[in-house]
TrEMBL record:
Protein name: Pseudaminic acid synthase
Organism: Dermacoccus barathri
The AFP-like domain, residue ranges: 299-354
Record Pfam families: NeuB, SAF
Xref: InterPro entries: AFP_Neu5c_C_sf, Aldolase_TIM, PseI-like, PseI/NeuA/B-like_N, Pseudaminic_synth_PseI, SAF, SAF_AFP_Neu5Ac, SAF_PseI/NeuA/NeuB
Amino acid sequence: MSQNPHENIRIGDLEVGPNAEPYIIAEMSGNHDGSLEKALDIVRMAAQQGAHAIKLQTYTADTITIDVKTDDFKISSGHELWADRYLYDLYEEAHTPWEWHEPIFALAKELGIHAFSSPFDPTAVDFLEQFDVPAYKIASSEIVDLPLIRHAASKGKPIIISTGMASLGEINAAVEAARSVGNDKIVVLACTANYPADPSESNLRGIPVMRDALGTLIGYSDHTMGIGAAVASVALGAVLVEKHVTLSREGGGVDSAFSSEPDELNQLVTQTKVAWQCLGEPRIGARAQEKEGLRFRRSLYVVEDVKAGDTVTSANVRSIRPANGLSPDAFSTLEGRTFTRDAAKGTAVSWDLV
């Protein structure tokens, strides 16, 4: 049975979905720059700034590629961040050593923040199981690896699938792969797999389209600079936002150039929550907190003392605040009629007064 994209699921001890504040994932990636202490500092920073989760990437250079120096394994010369680098060398630099996972996850638990990872092959899934991770994330490039998705989804944890570069058919195949092993706790992430991504390439109007087409919760994996795209994604229905984070963009790390610094992560957490709070309900009309304001709309009042038999004119009846008299539009019907009784200045005009 398909999940209801209008209902929450749970990741660990937290509700995730349209009826919960946006779930914010701080992606460490390779921004630890080869230092375990820096990795732990990133965990501390993410917890301090209010993120709900810290996410790693679990692979080695040998599990994600092979050490071959041909053009097939070389990033294009025009790439903004990693031009002319060989995949093996880049992943050797960027990977998070597997022996670091235990202290990173232990610190996250101590600080009350979720910790999980993107596994890049089945051995990584099996390795991560020992830490009782609350979810698995499938990276954009792995969306076509349906056996990997089935294996991760078979563990029964929520599965988060990033969709950079993918067609709707490829996304649907990945979702169905997860469902085929009985897992329907799925969040599909809208994503532009460019680093950094231009906001104009975000196409966030696709979020409700994906939600309706796939019948899943939708989130947003944000590679733009700043928080504007993330806030907009929540307004369009994203229930989860993932963002790369760093202690300092000038401090190195393979992804630091497009990652959020601590104060930006804090703004991401607070402003996406505000965006979610603003969504409210699909209804039009006065809100409870506007009740006092309704009292001070304009209406027709006697604005100078009048006697019975006096004629109603614009000099003695006007549209003013508050709202206890007849509507301002009624004046054209009242003008020229006579008052039925004396009325003091400040009397609300009613039909029985004329």
